[in-house]
Amino acid sequence: MATQNPDSRAAEVLQNPDQWKTGDEPMTAAQDAYLHTLAREAGEPVEPDLSKAEASKKIDELQAETGRGGAKKRGGKKTASKKV
Q1: Spacing of C-alpha 30 from chain mean position
Q2: Which of the residues 1, 22, 55, 79 has the least number of beta carbons within 10 Å of its own beta carbon?
Q3: Does residue 15 lie within any of the structural domains?
């Protein structure tokens, strides 16, 4: 069994969601729960039946809006959470 290089795993995690192999699959239960938490805090509705990639992008958007989450680099773009 081959082990994965931690640096290559980090690159995978930070890859643009539009490039994920499983991005078209339904969002995970964890994404759904966190997305609803963020949406409730932001006072925004959540669209049903989002894909993994769509949910990830919406989570990033709501994290920036609510001040949750840290700075991360994905797909060449750096996003940072808003400080209050």
Answers
A1: 11
A2: 1
A3: no
Range(s) of the domain holding residue 35 = 23-66
47, part of any domain: yes
For residue 79, the Cα-to-chain-centroid distance in whole angstroms is: 11
Number of domains the chain contains: 1
Nearest one of 10, 14, 16 to 54, comparing CA atoms? 16
Residue 46: inside a domain: yes
Tens digit of each residue's pLDDT (9 = 90 or more) over 25-78: 999 999 999 999 999 999 999 998 999 999 999 999 999 999 987 655 454 444
Instruction: Map tokens 């969002």 to a residue.
Output: 27
Residue 71 Cα to chain centre, angstroms? 12
